[in-house]
Amino acid sequence: MHGKGLRALSLVTVAALAVTFALVFFYAPNDADQGFIQKIFYLHVPVAIITLIAYVVAGGFAIKHLRTNDRQWDLRAYTTIHIGLIFNIVGLATGAIWAKASWGHWWVWDEPTLVSFLIVFLLFATYQPLRFSIEDPERQARYASVFAIMGAAFVPLNFIAVRAATGYVHPRVLASTGGGLPASMGLVFVVAIVAVGLLFTTIVAYEIASKNASWQLRALRRRLLGDDAVAPLGRSAAPTMGSTLESAR
Amino acid sequence: MALLRKDLLLERRAPESVPAMLLFSLTTFVLFHFGLGRDEVSGTLAAGVLLVTLLFSAILGINRLFVSEHEEGGFDAVLMAPIDRTAFFVAKAAALFVFLVLVEVVALFGFSILLLGPSPWPALPGLAVVLALLDIALAVVGTLVSALAIQTRARDLIVPLIGLPLLVPALIAAARACAPLFEAGGAQAPPGKWLLILGLYDLVFGLLAYAVFEFLLED
Amino acid sequence: MSALLAAAPALPLHTAGPYVAAAYIFFLAILVIYVAIMATKLQRMKRDLNDLGEQLEARDARRAAADEPAGGADVAATPQSDADAVAARTVVKAGSLGPGPRDSVGELAQEARSPEREVDR
Hints:
Distance between the termini of chain C: 57 Å
Oligomer: heterotrimer
Strand content of chain B: under 5%
Radius of gyration of chain C: 28 Å
Number of strands of chain B: 0
Structural class of chain B: mainly alpha
C-alpha cells in the first residue's frame, strides 16, 4: 500500500480510534458487576484478539513466501510478527493492570486468554533471535518462514490446551461478547476490534513502506555512487534484500 | 529405514545422547528432592517433576540430533543421495523417539525409587500411553527445531528457546494426564480429554513437519 | 464469567479510575513512541536522500567541467543529466512511499551503472 492508500488508511484508523474511545467512555454503560474498571476490556481484549490473528496471518504470509520464494512475503511476515509482538506486550500489560485492579494480583493463572497470551509471547519473542542467528539472508528468510508457520499452528493449539487446563468457571471472552454483554457493550466491543485491527494494519503498512523505501534508497545509492558509498550491511534480524533495485521490487 | 539404523548404530557404537540424557534426568530428580524438600511426591507434583525432567533431558537430545550430520557434512550427503527428504525426517524423528523411550524406561525406574510415593505398577499402562504420545510430540517438534537450529550460530541457545515454548501445550496435556496416575490413593485412568489434546498436538505438528521439513534442508 | 465477576466486586470510580487511565495511557504511550521511532527513521531517510542528491549534483558538475574543454558535442548532455538528477530525486521521493514509478528508477540506475560497479549482493 502506498501514497494515497496509506493516507486514507491512516485517516480511517485515526477516526476509528477516536470513535472507539468516545464510545468507550461516553456511550458504553458501566458494567453492572465490575463498574468502571471494565473499560479496560475494550482495550485489552481487542488488542489480544488482533495479536493472535496477526500471528496466524503471518503464518499465511510465510506459506506464501515458501511457495513463491518472493522476499516481499517474508518482509510481510516479519513485519506482522514484529508489530504483533509489540501488540502482544500491550495486551499483557493491560491484562496485568486489569488483573491487579479486579483481583488484586498483577497476574492471574486462571485467566486462559492471559496465560496463553504469555506463552505465545514467549514463543514469538524467539523469532528475532532466530533470524539474527542466521547470517545468509536467503536461508534466514526461509527458516524464519518455517518458524512462522509453526507459530501460526501453535497459537490455536496452545489456546485449546491452556483453556482446557483452567476449567470453565472463568471469563470466556468470546462467549461473553455474545451472551453476557448488553447489546450496547457488544457494539462498542466490535467497533473497538475493528479500530485496533485498522491500527495494526496501518502500522504494518507504514513499516513495510519504510523498509521498501530504505532498500530502494540503498540500491539507488549503490547504483549511482558505487559500492564504496554503501556501508556494508551488518548482521540483522530484519529481512534484507539484495541491494539491487530488481530484488527490492 | 537404513537411515534410522545408521543413527541407532552410531549411538550404540559411541553412546552420546542417551547416557547424557539419563544422567541428566537422575541428577534432576536429586535436585528436585532438595529443591522441593520432599522425600516423596505424588499426584500433580509427581507428574510435574517427572515430565519437566523428561522435557529438559529431551532438549539435550534434540540439541545433538543433527550434530553428526552437521560435522561430517552429512546434510550434503543426504541431499545428494536419492533419499526422500520426508524419509530423512521420519528416520530422524524415529531415532529421537527411540532415544526418548530408552531414557524414559530407566528414568522412570529411577524416579519410582528416588521420589515417587505410590507404587508405579498400577500406573504403568496409562503412563505408557501418555509417554508414547508425549514422545511423538517431542520427536516431531524436536526434529523440526533441531533442523531449524543446526544451521544457526547459536544452536544450543535456539533449541531450548524455541523448543520449550512450543512444547508447553504438550507438557500441559501430558502433566494433566499423568497426575491421576500418580495419585496417592491409587492410580486412576488418565482423562481422555488430555490424551485427545496430546494426540491433536501430535497430529497437527506431524502434518506440519511433513509439509515444511524440506524447506529446512534445501540449499 | 458471572462467578468470577461476583468475586470481583465493582470498584468505585476513584479506585478504578487510575487503573483504567494507566492502561489507556500505556497504550497511547507505546503509540507515541512508535510514531517517534518512525519519525526518526523518516528523518534519516530524508538526510540520506539529500546527501545522495548533493553527491549526484557534485558529480554532474564535475562531469560537465570535464566535458567542457572537449568541445561542444557534449553540451547537450549536461542539461540532460541535470534533469536526470532532478528526476532521480523526485523518483526517490515517490519511492519512499513505495515502489511507485519503479521503471524510471530502474532505467535511471541502468544508465548510471558502469559495468564494474555491478556487484549484486
